[in-house]
Amino acid sequence: MLKEQIKSLALQYQQEFIEVRHYLHAHPELSYQEFETSKYIQQKLTDYNIPFEVKATTGVVGLIEGRNPGSRVIALRADMDALPILEENEIAYKSATEGVMHACGHDVHTTCLLGASKILQELKEEWEGTIKLIFQPGEERNPGGASFMIKDGALENPKPQGIFGMHVHPGLPIGKFSFRKGRVMASADEIYITIKSKGGHAAAPHLTADTILIASNLIVSLQQIISRNNNPTSPSVLSICSIQGGHTTNVIPSEVKLKGTFRAMDEEWRRKAHHLIKKQSEELVHAMGAEADVLIDVGYPFVDNDPVLTEVGWHLANDYWGQENIEETELRMGAEDFGYYTHVVPGCFYRLGVRNEEKGITHNVHTPKFNIDENAIVNGIQMMAWLGAKAAI
Asked: Which of 116, 107, 46, 144 is nearest to 372 (CA)?
């Protein structure tokens, strides 16, 4: 049976792909700078005799045709960029690039897709249809590498009927996966507000507009956009995370800069909120005697898991791993540029358990000590190969 063949090959290649992950982890590259990572992926696909094209400068799209290749097309996606974080793990494969680290598991995602690609290519006479392999850049930085991949035709010729994406989950124990139908992750937009006045002496605030005080009022006021305008049943978050202004005790600064993020799971509300943020910022600041420049850098859309494809994936996961090892993914206000794909073709974004408390592997993503139980790699490879070979909607 195909299931046993996938499992056998995954176990046979387990150490090989742990070493692939070690290489990728030791050689991280930031968003849109993944030139060596892209070359590495291209070489691996060449070794596996899988044809590919380069998309969006560093992205790679491979194609594997099974029996009756026109019967269905399923895409599998992995991201490959790292984060500007100084790694604190003391491991043999620690990042060799100071200040850059695979702290979000993209090295794991790329490794699992490479492993699944090798297995699916070897077993291509055992399954039907076509599998598209999407290795994308820039998931960690606006506007998101997925948007560039789509613009460059990654979802065309052939167009997939569905796309699967996987992400490590440091809160989910090793050996488990999780799925969720419908909206699963939020949209994410960056907010930049600059409050301007002529500045002045702190002892004579009446001669200027106090940009610090104005900024304080604005931060509090902006929270009312969520609490008084958004439908309470639709999750949404507005957080101001940086305030920069002033340098001493007795000078009112001429400029204060605010930075923050806005998250939502409804595109109509998202557009309305953008208008309200801009309007409220400009009018409140103006009413207090200063001027405001407002920039909303529109980022990723929410991730919308297609109910049919997710049901298919969930069923296949139950069949392969047993129902006791498949959980429901929690709703998250974090963002993922996989959302772009889900607004073009049916998508399913699922989670791979990597946590092992006995081994002390408990740190969250985007932290200097994030790591995984590497037994998760063989699990991730099997799941990607199984979904690619069997899913159809």
From this structure: 107
| pTM value surpassing 0.85 | yes
Give per-residue pLDDT as tens, 302-349: 999 999 999 999 999 999 999 999 999 999 999 999 999 999 999 999
Neighbouring CB atoms inside 10 A of 43's CB total 10
Q: Which of 265, 297, 329 is the last residue of a domain?
A: 297
Number of domains in the chain: 2
Distance CA 302, CA 136 (A): 18
Beta carbons within 10 angstroms of residue 176's beta carbon: 20
b/e per residue 250-272 (b: at least 16 CB within 10 A): eebbbebbbbbbbbbbbeebbee
Q: Which residues are identified as catalytic?
A: 300, 374
* 153 and 289 together in one domain: no
Report the run of H or E that residue 75 belongs to, with start and end: strand 73-79
Of 183, 194, 84, 77, which Cα lies nearest the Cα of 141?
A: 84
